[in-house]
Amino acid sequence: MIQDIAANHTSTLSNGEIPVAAGIGLRACHYPDFQIGKPPTAWVEAHSENLFAAGGLPHRVMQQVRSHYPLSLHGVGLSLGSMDPLNKEHLQQLQQVISRYEPGLVSEHLCWVASEGRYLHDLLPIPYTEDMLQHVSDRIDQVQNVLRRQILIENVSAYLHFADDQMTEWAFLNALVRRTGCGLLLDINNLYVSSRNLGIHSDEYLVNLKADAVQEIHLAGFSVETALGQEVLIDTHSQAVWPEVWSLYRRALQILGRRVPTLIEWDTNIPPLDVLLSEAQKAQYILENIHE
């Protein structure tokens, strides 16, 4: 199935357009698979920061990947919710990578990852207040002006509510779209994790989210931990997509529409590439057969 989907979208390579199909996130352990062959995936997403160095293996692999597949770039380091000034060097490096590979989509997370110049290596949620909305909007405007293109903003998993919250996450995201013209990347796994941890109603979230702003969907697997005697879901991207997340994915497509590219992410305990491709096949089947 995926072989056919990938073959049907070779025409998108000239302009980098991401097809409405299932793709996979490229990780270093799978570089050899892409060096020796052309794995059957419709498109590929890479972490932007992995390409910030001037040369080396990541670029050798990416040059080969980009000659065969549409590409999306996904960032984890802009720290849009931080109080630190935007990292101009980071932004310049991102601009250079975009110019070099001409990705169809560029995305970042709605979070903060740095404080006073120290990077914390985690995607930390922000309070949904009017002040924070203005702050993040201003930073998205700066980023899009430098890059001269739209970026997508992804929802992150949450494990607590902020006492100062003035709006829901979906209302905050909708407001960002209105103020900046950014797009949205909807991570279904993150939504499910947050809904279980915080009691968020997924249907209300999906019904109210600005549907035409959603340009990409992510799917991944979570882990289950126990804290203070309570079950907590952790966004680890360490296993296959859970059945509950597949169900929420189907519901999201019914509500938002099925014309959205979908990505399988796997970041720890990464299995052989065939496992990711199998997960992508499941997503592709749902994309092709869902009834809106």
From TrEMBL:
Superkingdom per UniProt: Bacteria
Gene3D superfamilies in the cross-refs: Divalent-metal-dependent TIM barrel enzymes
Q: Which Pfam families does the UniProt record give?
A: MbnB_TglH_ChrH (PF05114)
Entry-linked PANTHER family:
UPF0276 PROTEIN HI_1600 (PTHR42194:SF1)
Mind telling me which NCBIfam families this protein's record contains? PRK05409.1
Q: Which family does it belong to?
A: Belongs to the UPF0276 family.
Q: Report what the protein is called.
A: UPF0276 protein A6P07_02060
Q: Which organism is this protein's natural source?
A: Acidithiobacillus thiooxidans (Thiobacillus thiooxidans)
